[in-house]
Every structure is written in structure tokens, then in C-alpha cells.
Amino acid sequence: MKRFPYAHASHAQWRVAVERVLAQLRLQLDRPDSARAVSLALLYITDHYAEQAQDILEQLSAGLPEVSDWVGTVGVGIAANNIEYFDQPALALMLCDLSPHQYRVFSGVAPLALSPRLTGADGFVAHTALVHADGSTPELAELIAELAQRTASACVFGGLSSSRSAQLQFAHSSAGTLRGQGAASGVFQGGLSGVAFDATAGLLVRVTQGAQPVGRAHRVTAAQGHLVLTLDQRPALDLLFEHLGIAPVRLAQSIERLRSTLVGLTPPDVPGQALARSAGLAPAVAHSFGPDVLVRHIVGLDVMRHALVFAEPVAPGSQLAFCQRHVQAAAADLMRICTEVRAELEAQTPSLPPGGALVRGGAPAFVAPQSQRIAGAIYVSCAGRGGPHFGAASAELRLVRRALGDVPLVGFFAGGEIAHQRLLGYSAVLMVFALPLA
């Protein structure tokens, strides 16, 4: 595996943008040290190009005949190394230096095996997957959870297409389609699609929810549907006021602060210690939420019953931590996940002997810095986080660049994020392909 070639371009005419991307890729592919096994492409376009999606895929396929499998989607914004394209026509493309036995493209006409134990004729076993989905798909949360169970890790990652026009996905598999499905164009609307990777793909994944807990976690001890009555046997509204330092008599003056306050919820079927630790009960992981925590809005206050109203039902026994979203919390947590990736790469790197050279077979070997050990990266962030939220255009991607270094990266800004088996919001998912040491 070598560093993944990638390119991006913006132009009012989609054909010009495609030609610019192809020109950038040809320059990279012509280099002696360039990747050669580039059969898989990740393609992201902004919704300005949604109506031309099929034409774009066909022109790119014609210009890159070595690529047999395509995956991607549309976003109101897309990402590339150090840059965000919002509200402008643009596309980003990355070619993955992976062998065909390391991945499988899936869609409604080419699904994954029902169980990770059911391998294909070539023995492929899905370990995890990058997923793109249409947010209007019925029972989407259940479909994501079911798809995750088709992987050995029971974890999938990705996001929901975001568009002001057509919600579409790219998914073309060289393995063909289900019998009876006919030919597939490679451009889909509705449902889920993506690419599954086996355990040898060297994938590292981290999730940031960009919310900072306010105080410790509580257990929901009484709830009725969307209404949470008590936390730790105390009135829920009273605990909210206590955490925020708000006097009930000054409620009108505190409306803006209340509007910026959310909750991190862990359902009863998820081990509760994850939320307890992330809400400040364990210093090692304080001030961050893991992917099992659902960050949700408070949509109302029931002053008569001293209760809180949420956007979705809350089950008794759930754990709840109040939290707030602001640029400092989001930036700090984004840097945290990037630091964790770098730390994991460092942990995989052998210690150098005296003199600084790693000796293999009697000869010194060069150990690349961590940024050079990243073959490529995929970044899926909430559309509500991109652009001005981090203070300036492309500020979020510049934070990633600062933390990871100059690495091949593409992605998109989603209408909702997918992590493990759940739908998240106002979060970001970072997927990194690590180059092997040998």
C-alpha cells in the first residue's frame, strides 16, 4: 500500500472540474513511487453537480479505466486536504491503493453477506464499512444497525447525503449485482450504499461529537415518552438549573444559554460507564463523548412538573449528561481524535535502537513520521459544523491538517453522521488508512 492519489477542483462547468481532477491524478499516477492498485475510487460532489452525477461518473470512469469500483455521495459541502467547498460547484476524488480482496462495494443491488461468517467465494470477510445513506429512507436507524451486524466488528461509519436537490449516492461494484436486478448505473437514490473493508485494510476510526459535558452524568429514573421527569430521583429541570447556575426566577434572562444546552444520552442497553467516564468521572477521557452517546436537543421545559422535553423518547434507565456546543469544545475534541490517531500510529512504530536507525535483516531501515504513515483519510462532518462555525472558511479542515499533517484526504458534510450502529448529529467521523511498516 502506498499513499493514495487524490484531487479536487471547483468550476461552474462540471466538465472543466472533471478534467482538472483527472489532470491532477494523472500527474500523481505517472510518478515512479505512485500507487498502482487503484481499483477503488471515493467520489464526493457538491449538490451543484447533483443533476450531472451520472455524466460525472461516466467521464471519470472513462478517464480512469484502471478503476473498477466507485463509492461516494453528494453534500452541501465537500472536503479535501485543508479546504472546504461550500455552496459552490466542486468535486473531490481519492484513489485507494487497496487490493480487490480487501474491500467490497455494496448497495441495494449488491448487498453484503448476511453474516460476517458467511464469506464470498474468495473468502472476503467484512470487518467494518464506510456507509452513505439517504436520510429519508424508512427505518433508517434499524437498517444501519442491521448492516453493522454484517461486519465482524459490528461497527460502521459514514454519513447521510446532504443536498438541496437530489439525494444521491455512487456505488458501482465490479462484482456485479444480484441476479434479476439487471444493469446498475452506479448512481442511486434512497437506501444505503458504501464499501466494506476487511481487517487488513489498516483502518483507524475516531468520532468527535463536538460537545462539552457540563458536570457529571445522571440516570433517568422517571420518564414518559419525550418527557424526562426525574434524574437520580430528583426533578430533571431543577438539576438542569443547578448545572447551569440558573435561578428559576431569572429564567427569561437565561433563554439563550438554555437554547445552547443539549444532552448526551446513553440508552439502557449500552454500558453506562462510557457516558460516566466521558462526562468527567474519569480524568483520562474527560470533556468528550464517545460514539455510543446520542447528543440531542432539549425542545421544551415543563415548569409545572419540573421536567424536560426532548426531541425523541427517552427510556428510564438511560444515562444523561448535560452538555454545550461551542467552537472551543468542537475544536478541542477534533484535535483530541486526531491526536489519538497519531498516538496509535506511534504505538505501532517499533522503538529505535541507539543511533536512531531501525535495523531489519542487518540493514538500517527508515521509519517514516506519523503523517507519512497515513495512506489516506476520509472525513465526514456535520453540515452544521462546517464553514463559519469554526470561525472562518475551511477552518475545520485546517485543524485536521494541523493535527495529521499533509495527508491525502477527501470527505463531505453530511445531514447526519453514522458511527458504530447509530445515527449521530453535529459530529464528525475520521477514517484513516495506515501504511504498513514493512
Write structural notes for this entry:
This protein is of the alpha+beta class. The chain folds into two domains: 6-201 and 378-434, no CATH class; 211-324, no CATH class. It is built from eight helices and 28 strands. It has helices at 14-29, 53-63, 140-148, 236-244, 255-259, 273-281, 327-348, 395-404; strands at residues 6-10, 40-46, 69-75, 77-80, 83-86, 90-96, 103-106, 128-133, 156-160, 169-172, 187-188, 192-197, 203-208, 211-213, 218-224, 227-231, 234-235, 261-266, 294-302, 307-310, 319-325, 358-360, 363-365, 374-382, 409-414, 417-420, 422-424, 428-434. A six-stranded mixed sheet has the order 1-6-2-3-10-11. The longest helix has 22 residues, at 327-348. The radius of gyration is 23 Å and the shape is elongated. Residues 272-286 and 354-368 have low confidence and may be disordered.
Question: How are the SSEs ordered, and which strands pair?
Answer:
Blueprint: E1 6-10, H1 14-29, E2 40-46, H2 53-63, E3 69-75, E4 77-80, E5 83-86, E6 90-96, E7 103-106, E8 128-133, H3 140-148, E9 156-160, E10 169-172, E11 187-188, E12 192-197, E13 203-208, E14 211-213, E15 218-224, E16 227-231, E17 234-235, H4 236-244, H5 255-259, E18 261-266, H6 273-281, E19 294-302, E20 307-310, E21 319-325, H7 327-348, E22 358-360, E23 363-365, E24 374-382, H8 395-404, E25 409-414, E26 417-420, E27 422-424, E28 428-434
Parallel strand pairs: 2-3, 8-9, 24-25
Antiparallel strand pairs: 1-6, 2-6, 3-10, 4-5, 4-25, 7-12, 8-12, 9-26, 10-11, 13-28, 14-21, 15-16, 15-21, 16-17, 16-20, 18-19, 18-21, 19-20, 22-23, 24-28, 26-27
Helix pairs in contact: 1-2, 7-8
